[in-house]
Amino acid sequence: MSKWNLIVDVANCTNCNLCVLACHDEHVGNAFPGYSEEMPKHGHKWIEIDRRERGAGPMVDVAFLPKMCQHCDDAPCMEKAENGAIAKRDDGIVLIDPVKARGQRHLVDACPYGAIWWNEEKQVPQAWTFDAHLLDDGWAEPRAVTVCATAALRSVKVDDAEMQRMVREEGLEELRPDLGTKPRVWYKNLHRYSKAFIGGSVESASGGKVDCVEGARVTLHSSGTRIAETATDVYGDFKFDHLDPDSGAYRVEIAADGHAPKSVDVTLGESTYLGEIRL
């Protein structure tokens, strides 16, 4: 059976907030019986974009992470819901019943992703519905996807086997795999937000002039084992990404023709720029 999934490409998100605005435009002042109550004009962000800055000048990487209801197959909120207030449809979409869920404020804390919001006026918990009312009316994708100008959001309706193939081939990840909720929102290039990097710039001095060293061979070592290698670009820059924050001691070794090799030790907490390294 085909089920809905959302793919979020962190590398493509520019924080334009068009998806956020589309969600507000669709739901503020509009109730969709069986799907959702009106969304409050203020205070709710059923789609929310987090920001993370990595590194230090001049090597800085800024990433934006759209977050929303993950439409989990093993949704914790469903376990806490009373009177069948939250249900998962056959097409994978999780919906909070706007009538059955009335008064169940505890469901806000039941979501480990922080994606359920409390509507004080209507006394009902709410979350992004995947625009199920539009899909049921014949739309090919949710409004948030239709307005995304950078292709950071993509919705697909495929069976689980096909989705797992896409996960493998495109390197898709869950936002919080440690939770074991089996979400149907997948993230591409998540390392831009969740991982750390070690970078630097290699230079040399000759004849009173300082110049970038292009093509220097740079290797990264951990516990005496080489774990990655790269080469400096035309500006002499190098970067090792996909590293775990707070992962401890590393050694960066640099070799370039006509220069003595050099090594730099670093203890990685957050992303680190080693500065200009003179050969």
What would a concise description of this structure say?
The protein has 279 residues and is of the alpha+beta class.
Please describe the topology of this protein.
Blueprint: E1 3-9, H1 18-27, E2 48-56, E3 59-67, H2 76-80, E4 86-88, E5 94-96, H3 107-110, E6 117-119, E7 124-126, H4 132-136, H5 143-147, E8 153-158, H6 160-170, E9 185-188, H7 191-194, E10 196-206, E11 209-212, E12 217-222, E13 225-231, E14 237-243, E15 248-255, E16 262-268, E17 272-278
Parallel strand pairs: 1-9, 10-17
Antiparallel strand pairs: 1-8, 2-3, 4-5, 6-7, 10-11, 10-14, 12-13, 12-15, 15-16
Mean pLDDT over the residues: 97
What class would the helix/strand composition place it in? Answer: alpha+beta
**CATH architecture descriptor text of the largest domain:** 2-Layer Sandwich
Unreliable stretches: none
Q: Please give the share of residues in helix.
A: 10-25%
Q: Taking Cα atoms only, what radius of gyration do you get, to the nearest Å?
A: 23 Å
CATH topology of the largest domain: Alpha-Beta Plaits
Total helical segments: 7
Structural account:
- The protein has helices at 18-27, 76-80, 107-110, 132-136, 143-147, 160-170, 191-194; strands at 3-9, 48-56, 59-67, 86-88, 94-96, 117-119, 124-126, 153-158, 185-188, 196-206, 209-212, 217-222, 225-231, 237-243, 248-255, 262-268, 272-278.
- It is an alpha+beta fold and 279 residues long.
- It folds into two domains: 3-193, Alpha-Beta Plaits, CATH 3.30.70.20; 196-278, Immunoglobulins (Immunoglobulin-like).
- Strand 2 and strand 3 (59-67) form a beta hairpin.
- The longest helix is centred in the middle third of the chain and has 11 residues, at 160-170.
- It is elongated, with a radius of gyration of 23 Å.
- The model has no long low-confidence stretch (mean pLDDT 97).
